[in-house]
Structure formats: C-alpha cells, structure tokens
Amino acid sequence: MKDRNLEISWLKTFVTVAHTGSMTQATELLYRSQSAISMHIKNIEETLGRKVFNRDIRRLSLTPAGKELLHHAQKILGVYSEAMQSLIGSDVRGTLSLGLPDDFVKQYLPGLLRSFSEKYPFIEISLICEPSLSLIPKIESGELDVAVVTRDRPDRGHFLFSEPLVWTGSETCNLLDRSPLPVAMYEYGSEARKKVLQALDALESGYRVVYSSPYIAGQIAAVESGMAVAVLTRCSVPEHLTVLRSSRLPAMPALDVVVFASQQSANKSLASLLVQEVISVMGTTD
C-alpha cells in the first residue's frame, strides 16, 4: 500500500491559502509561484482523496474536509515550529526592515517585538514608522522587507484585523457647535482620509479641514490645541483625549489592516519568519 504522507511544505501552503482565501495572496506570503501553490493543494487532495477547497469565482472556501484538515494542520505546524525554534531558531541571524504606521505602534509593536526577539534574538529589526501610503511603494521596490499597512485594495496582503475609526476631541474645548466643523485630517491620498471624507459628506453643518498631517502626533496636537476635532484609529487615542459620541457626528468605518512582504527582499526566508510572527501576534483568530 502506498504511503499517504502530508509534507510540512504542503500544510504551510494549505493553511496560508485557507487564511487568505486566495492562491495569489499565498504566493506573496510564501514566495512560491502560483503553479507551485496549486500543486501543493493538488497533492493534498490526491493524498486524502477528498477536496479541501470549494473553488468559487472570487474566493476559495473550505470544504468540510478542509475545515477538519485546517484544525489539525495548525496544530501540526505549531508543534513543528516550536521544535525548529527550540533546536535551531536561536542561531538564525540577519537584519530585517519592518514598516508600520505610527497609529499602531503603541498598541501592537511592543508585543510583536518581544515575541519575535524571544524566538530570534540575533535578528536585528530596523523599524520605519511612516503612513501606509509611503510604506507600500517601499515594499514594492524592495526598500522594505515587511510592512503592516491599511489595505488599499482587496488582494493586498494577509488580513490581520479591522481597526475602528473614532471621533476624538479635547475635554476642554467643545467644537461640535461650530459650523462648519473644524477637522484635523490624515494626509492626502491615504485610505483613512478617503473613508473620513466620505463619511463627512453626510455632516449637515458642513466641515472645514484646518490641519492635515501624515503622522498621528500632529493630529493629536491639533486636537489638544482646541483648533479641531479629529478622526483617529481607536488604538491611537491617548487617555487624555475624549472619544466623541454624538448623534450629530456621522458614523465612521473601520480600516482593514494587513501584513505583506516584499517580493524584491534580499532576506526572503527571514522576512517569512517575521510575517508569520506578525500574523500570530496581531492577527484576528476565528
């Protein structure tokens, strides 16, 4: 009887495709061609004698067998990763660059750096804190290895979480009665600014942009000065500012946050380790 074995590389591919729902996105995370990704899935299905994905037009979805396999594959890969890290992980050396908007630094970065450095103490991280609008071209050109950004298109990166946008103001300055409403805004061209402006179109009293900045510190300063209210990511609102809840203010959407690595990176194997750690620490679990 022919042995029925599922290789670790196949399982890694399967789990990545299951999480992204796309073989195209899996190629970006695993640095493999789409034909190689397809072959891994085909090998799994032939070994099991069962389909693991429903191949819909827009997005792959798991079959009942696929859901069962995902449960076991995640456990297997977790044990495998722990064993490899215990045996050789501490000897991995190199340098990686990580890009992250300053919105997410305080809430998410300490835990990520702590977890990654415990596993890979000899990998040096060069941190670049810039808006997503600046980070995406740097990833595409290979200037950055890995970035966490606001998703600008449906096929961009591996989804991590949705971050709510909230109205923020100073406790000492009530600006809600101003007409038009003075607003501090994200930089031109950003996904956050586009979403905020779309919501502001519903404001009956109108609005006026009095300050724009690509950095969260500038918007916070504008609010602290009493010159404007601002729409910030919830995780970036400091304790001394107030999250404004008023029926006069339009509801704000959430930003989808993703991680992706550069196809031009000179450190693809190390970048893959960082991407997986970002997913583990910052990703939403079902």
Keywords:
two-stranded antiparallel sheet, 3 domains, D-Maltodextrin-Binding Protein, domain 2, 286 residues, transcription, LysR_subst-bd, Arc Repressor Mutant, subunit A, elongated, DNA-binding, WH-like_DNA-bd_sf, alpha/beta, single chain
Can you describe what's shown?
- The protein is α/β, with parallel strands linked by helices.
- It folds into three domains: 8-86, Arc Repressor Mutant, subunit A, CATH 1.10.10.10; 90-153 and 258-282, D-Maltodextrin-Binding Protein, domain 2 (3-Layer(aba) Sandwich), CATH 3.40.190.10; 162-255, 3-Layer(aba) Sandwich (D-Maltodextrin-Binding Protein, domain 2), CATH 3.40.190.10.
- It is built from nine helices and eleven strands.
- It has helices at 8-20, 23-30, 34-48, 64-87, 105-119, 132-141, 191-200, 216-224, 268-282, and strands at residues 53-55, 60-62, 93-99, 122-128, 146-150, 158-169, 181-185, 207-212, 229-233, 242-243, 254-261.
- Strands 3, 4, 5, 6, 7, 8, 9, 10 and 11 form a nine-stranded mixed sheet that branches. It has a two-stranded antiparallel sheet with strand order 1-2.
- A hairpin with a 4-residue loop joins β1 (53-55) and β2 (60-62).
- The protein is elongated.
- The relative contact order is 0.15.
- One of its GO terms (molecular function) is DNA-binding transcription factor activity.
- This is LysR family transcriptional regulator.
- It holds the Pfam family HTH_1.
